[in-house]
Fold each of these.
Amino acid sequence: MPILGIIASSKFGDVGDFESIATVTVGSGGASNAEFTNIPGYYEHLQIRALTKCSNADLTVRAQFNSDTGTNYATHYIEANGSTVAAGAVTSTTYVMVGIAASGTAGQVGGFVLDVLYYSNTSKYKTTRTLSGCDNNGSGYVWPASGLWMSTNAITSIKIFPASGTFQQYASFALYGIRSA
Amino acid sequence: MPITYEPLATTTLGSAAASVTFSSISGSYTDLVIVINGALSSGLASLSVEYNGDTTVGNYSYTRLQGNGTSATSARATSDKGIGFVAQDACMTIININNYSNSTTYKTTLTRTNSNYSSDGRTASYVALWQNTAAITSIKLSASVNFNSGFTFTIYGIKAA
């Protein structure tokens, strides 16, 4: 059984424990979202590793599963801005918060590593966890969070989008599947 | 099916050392993950990084979230190569460097770092910035004191489709 998390496999030498499914890279025109569809159900967990850049300042990045736009999501997060720490939560939202994006100075980017646990299980609500942040050489955030999608449906698509504005060029989102033994 | 998550190199110290360097890092992966585990002889020390031999401290900065069992705090430093910490008794650090080989963006790292030092236990997350668009080909890790014998450093490459 692989150890899920930032390091996501306990048997790295075994082919197929941690597999790349698809990658979305934002081009020069920007993009309102990045979407993964037709996600196969034969993995145990999913991980999305992202480089984030958006048109508005230091905004959170959101996700929806299976095109569900209902108020079926919740997020708990910790936001550290270099001087203070705040904890927050949002409930009955139409999205789960999965990270934070950088903006502004050319070259600066944020990132996140998001785990979606037991995404294909049809008897559990779906839980996410993320480590995210952006440092802009004098500003920025560290932003870990956990999220909930109150649905027992297997996740077959994930749409990722900024709280406002658009993703900018060089933002990228790589989806991986993690198998169990 | 190609291997997606692959160990690239491991260094286990046979004696104390001031730094460990991974060099000639292939650009054929998408992300890098570095796992560090060990114990200092005494105390707790900052863990620092240098990429591609860039010693210009003004190119590095970080923002940190930290908990020590009593309180949660946040700090920021510019002109600082900090990326985590190492400590006596036991410590563990995992560093994520996403899109390390692109040549268009600065490089951002996400780190989870933990100290189980009985006198100074901490858990922290760092986001750190290297203001350089060059692909990362070498990584030097050092601390404000020597790494002790037995410290292990492993670097992995993750390849996206």
Amino acid sequence: MADLTTDADIRLKGEAKTEKFYMDTSAAQTIYKGQPVMIDQTTDPLYMVGYVDGIDVAPTDVFMGIAAEKKSVLLAGAETTEIELYVGPSIVGFKSTVFTLNSKLGTTVYMSDSSTLSITAADNVQIGTLFKIDDGYCYIKLSAPQVCAGSGA
Amino acid sequence: MAGDLVRDADLRFKGQAYTETFTLDTSAAQVVYRGAPLMIIATGDTMHAIFYQDSINVAAADVCLGIAAEHKEVTTAMDEDKAEIEVYVWPTIIGLVNIAVPLTNADIGKEIYMSGSGALNETVGDNAWLGKLFKVEDGYCYIQLRNPVICSGAGG
């Protein structure tokens, strides 16, 4: 798999809860719907960056939620652009074959790039626990905001 | 068999109940009573559920899916895709009759397990993990379900 280049197909189970945050503009960035969004402590402890494979998540970094909309910002723009994120306790469904067995329900889930679910903490972003597998979608009970304490980057 | 259900349990709820549908394992006939925990046994059928009873030694990799919301019977070798059962899951707060272990409001917040399909217990042991005690009221223990949850503390 690879990082998102378009909005992801996501589904929701039950009521979704969202919060708004400001995007970091120390670099231009486009965040796609379905992409994890985080606080990268080495970049900016206040404003959001979209998680991509090139980011090595550290134990103090914070997963803030899953982007509910596509949003772009320019380099050095005013940090006043808001993005809406799905946060806990939303249950978000990702189209994925990473999990196919109900014996994995309850497993802590990470993302290894902006479109790929993973069971590996390593330098990945921790997003929640597997809630259900249904119709080709893996539903994740989000734990955002979540300090990625298990990450080792 | 200690503490296992022989009929549907009396259940109560606080707030809204949430359910998900799963399918039952039919490698053996099953009679699932309303109120029984449903499990995925990691070393058995990793897709289809069986009901928890005292004779099952829950292992750390097993998953407790939730509490059966309906009485369901399946026969051996029945089509598993048609053996659906509705299960109460997180964040439902479900009230179970407080008989096996006399819990009180002093126990609120403790993790709660089931040592039989009708018996609450504070001990992880080889038991099914439900969630945490929310309130004790009128002879019922209200449990805030965590399910589906991996029974990571179990040692059966």
Amino acid sequence: MENPIYISLSRQTALQRQMEMVANNIANMNTTAYKNQRMLFQEYVDRPAIGEKISLVQDYNTTRELREGPIQATNNPLDVALQGDGYFTVETMSGPRYTRAGHFRLNNDSELVDGNGLPVMGENDLRLQIPQNARTIDIKGDGTIIADNVQVGRIKVVRFEREQFMKETAGGLYVTDEQPLDAPDTKMAQGMLEQSNVQPVLEMTSMIEIMRQYQSNQKMMEAEHERQRTAISKLGRVSQA
Amino acid sequence: MRSLSIGATGMLAQQLNVETISNNIANATTTGFKRQRAEFQDLLYQNMRRVGSTSSDAGTVVPSGVQVGAGVRPSAVYRINEQGSVNPTENPLDIAIKGNGYFQIQLPSGETAYTRSGNFMVNAQGEVVTGNGYAVQPNIVVPAEAVDVTINASGEVLVKLQGQVTPANVGQIQLANFANPAGLEAVGDNLLMETPASGNPITANPGQPGFGSIMQYALENSNVNIVSEITNLITAQRAYEMNSKVIRSTDEMMQTVNQLR
């Protein structure tokens, strides 16, 4: 008897989570290398009684749009944008993490670190140390770092077979169990940063859509509520007569 | 409804962005000022359905789970140490650094501060000081009877005295450099302080490998590009508005719930 309410409820719960996702996309529209997220829904069929079948909705998947974000010039010599698919590798206490946010700087040991202070890995998983007195730091398209005309190392770029399997952790970092592959075709651009690929207009429209769908579900629940109330009062009257 | 707080993190982040941009614009004509940029990061993610978990007895794996983020946070406001353009002036003690390095300034507290702003003056004792009267390190004293002061590219201060043919060397301007100049802490008055993140100062004469050279009769302008700051300001303001729309929509959704009888 209450099944219509539960069907609406399943939709509303899913919509609430979708709203949270859209809110997160909009909040991160200026976050370096942030990837827009989408939610996928599926039908979930339940059989509460024999011969009865109700179809609920379930949000079963979030996917990242892997499209490259626009490149913005910052003119900071240690800002590096990736062109093409691929990730930088950073070293953490709990193993390698991958990121596309190339906002690098030097730590007090003159090592190249990312925005969180995690060391950026070069080839052969070596940290990249820049000579302390380097006057100029050039980062070539293939990631070779040249400080005062001396090559000091190469920033490692890796790619993955199944990028959607990568899990977001905070701070623009991703984690995966997959083995990294070489990414020879990915180029680096110095003095640039990859912006987020969130398209604010689309997010605003989907936000309006979510809100209206939420309201129409509410209407349905109200109608169902009304139906139940009418049924109870009418049935009650028949029994009295 | 987490989208309320997610929208709030977005508004806070954009507020910081606008503050950074307005400080850049306010300092567009400040000597030796380096523009700043606010950098953002996504906050923690909550796993609703974990990626890689098995979805059946047969061992099939969920290709990507449901992960909902918790918003955004500012990760850094960093200085972009790009060389500013150099403006010619008429003052012999206006000096600009072309390349890396900072002038060392002795604060009244005894600490050393660092600056790119080279608009120096002479105090009553003939010492070369900043506009606030703080002495440049190492100390340079220009004699009162000097007719002309020349500062060459390698930082030697030469004064021509009345009746003398060869100019006398009265001091040497030294520059300090850091492994990570972006890690210096700004304390106002164009001054920067050493921090554990910046590393220790390495001092040398101007023109040495890794250090810039000195230009007399010149001042380094700020490296703020007004046009790009204004466009950034527009983006930041619109982003702020959109985040406030998120909060309003969430509010309306909650209002809808409250109308349920």
Amino acid sequence: MTHGGLQRLAPYGLIVGLIAVVVASLCIGSYPMSFWRAAGIAGHLALPWSLPDPLPWPARDLLVVQIIRLPRVLLAVFVGIALGISGTALQGMMKNPLVGPDLVGVSSGAACGYVIGVLLDLPPGGCLALGFAGGVGAMVCTYALARLAKGTEGVGLILSGIFISAFCMACVGLAQFFANDGQLQNMTFWLLGSLARAEPHTVTLMAVPVLVAGSILMLLRWRLNLLSLGPLDAASLGVRVGFLRLLIVALVSWMVAAQVAASGVIGWVGLVIPHVARMIVGPDHRRLLPASAWLGGLFVLLVDDVTRVLRTEIPVGVLTSLIGTPFLVFLFWKRKAKGWMND
Amino acid sequence: MPASFVRYVPSLTRELRWAVPLAALGLMSLALLRPAPVIPPTAFAHSATIIDSMGDAVQVPMPPQGVASVYLPEYLPQTHATALLLRAGSAEERKKFLAGRWAWLFPELADEHYWSDEYPYPVNMESLIAVRPGDLHFGFTWFQGVRYGAAELRQLGVTALATFLPEKFQPPDPPQLRSPKIAESEYHMFAWVRTMNAALGQPEFGERVIAEYLDQVRELHEELRPETIPEAQRPRVLGMNAPIDDWSNVSVTSDDNERLATRGTGRKLRTSGRYQEAERVLAMNPDIIMSNPRDLYRDVRWRGLQAVRERRVYAGHADFSRFIHDIDNLALAARWQAEIFHPDRLEPTVRARMRAYYRKRYGIEIGDERIDALLSVDLNKDSQGYARFQAAPHP
């Protein structure tokens, strides 16, 4: 098969792989369950009609899949998809392969909102809401600052993001300083990034932005190709560059704010996954964006499976950084030799 | 359908291929909105109905099969049920647990089968569900910062019993002690003792443990008569936790204690459980500090404290004074502290009381060496008046 043929088929392979890993993940855990039983239960749950009566499986099996494993698996997939799409969209929009979704300040803003919620002893739902509001608020501040500096293009936006990020992280540090032992433990665990607290409402918080904003970004992937040519070329081809950039940043921020609120700070996925996807399907965003989404979901789910198998609940954010950093260093070293720095 | 639209169907289908997985994920997310399945209570061949501390009736197997999860240090002194400890905690935790006095109180735990990790401690909800349905789970549990109460655990098919009373509870017993008043935390502890022992089929043992505890409290009260000690004569006591060498970050605890007739030192400060700058501790200037005396005497920065200058810093052994629900130790530790705080009113009898207590409750004779260890005699030897707590020299 030709290289082009492989590139066309790769997204299908990733979808099949993602489905297989989703079902396999439903079998992983301390409670023993076969692949086919997990697949059967998941299939019945996904169909829009009521479950068979009497149940063909023990109620305990259904409970384990529906209440414990499915929320976590879905959250992992949604988190991965959100980060994969966000990273790819931002890298394409800014023509910069070292841009990640956390650079526009959203992650730090969401982190700031969440830890303030913990400090105020808000219930989990309140902390989530404050985290989400913090992420969106940080994005608004970043964009407003970039506009003030007349630099909403590329570097200006990133610099604004870095400033807002630094401010938000200072607030996080202050909140940690004032926290008592219990609050501090809660904050630290959450800031490390974990999917262990997946519950139906956290999945809903993630699902809505990923399904809505993710779909809009997928529809915009043709325009992303034009945008990656540069603002002048894109404008000459009829693209409203300013509006498109604002729209992309807003959609990415929505997803990332929800991701950080739901699962804490999970770094490097949004930076590394687009590179891997580009190696598999090439730079064309028509294929790159879906491939990044499925690959992101697959990656975060596999990493989370590892933490579940280890039974020690290492935070996912720690593992993704442990895996992502060496990979990016390797990529940086290899690509530099080919003149990546001059791209 | 207009022909112009049909012409675009193949390309539209290609364009929207990405939507299929997203739609599937959306459908699966909707599955989470279904009502949770109801797990019927496990039917045991022989069972008993236990009313737990929250007033819920729970079916438990009789005789008990095992304990799936429990706060280890507080379980044994309340139940003496060593055989069931096999299922409580991981091998590593049991090893740590046996490092202290439990090693000599329960020598049978040295048996190798207690080191097996056949029944690992549940680390998440799923591993808790995976334990045998007959294994008991006492109290609430925390997984990744999320609290699960006994009622929630029962909905997931775990045989769980609440051990704490509801937040606004009516004292479950007629007050056995008019004076001193029984504290709210003690009612919780009694509920804990009662629930555990009832579930293990030995309710009378639990009642005996509580009665002995109340006897000791009453006896201390009658000897100390705290109501006759005026406010000004009550020592101001501060608890300081490690690390005290970190000058900027000292964890302190200080509250009024009517039973021990002591005053707190930081009434205007939010002290309990908070980290404080050392200067605030200097400003509190307590009469007595409960902490490691060696650390405080050695560090010149603490010499501004009156308690340090007068060498009134005392350490309690972790085995003796740390656990809030260790009913074995609470009364004895209170006696020990009262004897330190009020040497003018109380004779140092804690050594003899310890010896008598362990003889009665555990049927063992503990020697001077073990009592010295529990009272931290070596650590406190430079502190004011601690010679009173040393063993009498043998003739």
